[in-house]
Write a structure and sequence with these properties.
484 residues; alpha/beta; Rossmann fold; seven-stranded mixed beta sheet; five-stranded antiparallel beta sheet
Length: 484
């Protein structure tokens, strides 16, 4: 099994709002670049294969709350190019969207939903959908926040779709802050600097944001160390302590090797400070590094390609910055008498060894307040299961509360009732459609009997629940991909 890493998110934003046009993508078509540089870096991976349940009956992985791959893929499509295959992480396409899962009703901070239905791209197969929702919390009840922005102000950030967009995103978050919340700003270029000491004075914060300018090379590791120092100096016990890194990922001074940066972040997460990474821009985007830093820093990775995406990250999904459960792991025990073959779709760099499930020292993914996360398995049932139906599939979950080092166990079951695709829930049909979209974009060997017209039809018939119209906007991307 592959080793999995989890990072907190580094905020990076692209300001292209001046390029807004009413067009095929509607409001989400704001400010995309038309040129894609070959200088961008992505981590390579191979899709999870089908596994015989009789050989490996147990499958274990960590959740992934990232949504960065979707908005980055959108940038490519809007720019008239198909994205590179390694930029397409299907689980992040799925988890870009919110799902109508139920809140937890017991003592656990996460609610669990499961559903089994027909696979729309392979009539001989079925899909198991696993949904998790973090406990919803009213904004006034969020714990006090200690935010530290680590902003890349190197020369590569001077473009209009980089630092200016980051600054717009910072102001969005500032508008969401309360009197009990604080923000500090650390910058890094040739060397790290403190642009603003931690304060709750919104006017001071706004002026400090306005003064940020770009120039110099990129000493990222020094900035990371300084940001953690400030976060620890202002640490709020039982509060929300979080660093948000905003950059194009072009570290070229000091520690620049991805593995070395991961080791640094793994040490820093022991402080209890969470990390969010946000990528912006084109040309020298090191997307692979930012995603891995977030995975290993107890956070999530987002890519911001326009002002509305900045609004989505900092306003619409503000709850993501408030972790309700960390190190969330999922383990499924497949009965070979019921399941012949199974395949975890996506989560390739989140796969865990089976023994990692009960190992509380093993890092895994986080989920924020009100956030939803979805995972999908494609399975081939045995003939006996197909004939009889109603076979339970055991699914186990482990998580830790944000300030705990001891995991708690939740046991659930998914039941196969031979449900045809058309009779499944709207969430099931929409997640399946976006999954199929991702498989088509990757030209996956597992894409089955599907095409963009089918995907578009599935999406259009699964949009009753559509906060902020993000499901609706996805239909334009599907049309663009078909044209390309």
């Amino acid at each position: 099994m592959k080793k999995i890493f989890f990072f907190a998110i580094i905020p990076l934003f692209v300001l292209l709002s001046s390029c807004y046009k009413e067009g095929a993508l509607g409001p989400m078509g704001l400010g995309f670049d038309n040129g894609i540089s070959s200088g961008e870096q992505y981590n390579t991976f191979s899709e999870n294969p089908f596994v015989k349940a009789i050989d490996e009956p147990v499958s274990t992985f960590s959740i992934d709350a990232d949504g960065g791959s979707y908005s980055n893929v959108r940038r490519f499509l809007k720019g008239g190019e198909m994205p590179p295959v390694d930029a397409i992480r299907v689980e992040e396409l799925i988890n870009y969207f919110q799902y109508n899962y139920a809140d937890p009703i017991d003592q656990h901070p996460i609610g669990i939903s499961t559903e089994v239905g027909e696979c729309p791209w392979n009539a001989d197969h079925k899909l198991i959908q696993i949904g998790i929702k973090g406990k919803s919390i009213a904004k006034e009840n969020y714990p006090a926040s200690n935010f530290v922005f680590l902003v890349d102000v190197s020369g590569s950030m001077s473009s209009a779709n980089k630092l200016p967009l980051v600054k717009t995103g910072m102001k969005f978050l500032l508008d969401e802050m309360r009197d009990i919340d604080r923000m500090a700003i650390v910058t890094y270029a040739s060397s790290p600097g403190v642009a603003l000491n931690s304060t709750n004075d919104k006017e001071k914060i706004r002026k400090a944001i306005d003064k940020l300018g770009a120039g110099g090379s990129t000493a990222g590791a020094g900035g990371i160390n300084r940001a953690y120092e400030i976060a620890e100096e202002n640490f709020v016990v039982d509060g929300n302590n979080r660093i948000i890194i905003a950059t194009d990922g072009d570290f070229n001074v000091g520690i620049s090797d991805q593995d070395e940066l991961i080791k640094l972040i793994e040490k820093k997460r022991e402080s209890g400070v969470f990390l969010t990474t946000i990528g912006v821009g084109t040309g020298n985007l090191n997307e692979g590094m930012l995603e891995q830093l977030a995975n290993n820093g107890n956070g999530t990775f987002e890519y911001i390609d326009n002002e509305l995406q900045a609004r989505k990250v900092f306003i619409d999904e503000f709850g993501k910055f408030f972790t309700v459960a960390k190190d969330v792991k999922i383990q499924i025990d497949f009965d070979p008498a019921v399941v012949e073959l199974y395949r975890l779709i996506g989560y390739e760099n989140r796969v865990l060894n089976d023994s990692d499930f009960t190992n509380d020292a093993k890092d895994a993914g986080e989920i924020g307040a009100g956030q939803t996360i979805t995972a999908i398995y494609e399975i081939k049932s045995t003939q006996v299961a197909f004939l009889r139906g109603s076979h339970p599939i055991s699914i186990n979950f482990r998580y830790k509360k944000p300030n705990s080092d001891v995991s708690e166990l939740i046991v659930k079951a998914a039941t196969d009732d031979l449900t045809p695709f058309a009779s499944t829930s709207e969430d099931f049909r929409f997640a399946s459609a976006i999954t199929s979209f991702g498989l088509l974009l990757r030209n996956s060997e597992y894409k089955g009997d599907t095409d963009y017209d089918k995907v578009l039809n599935w999406v259009n018939n699964a949009r009753t629940f559509d906060p902020n119209s993000y499901r609706f906007y996805s239909t334009d991307l599907i049309k663009i991909a078909k044209g390309l």
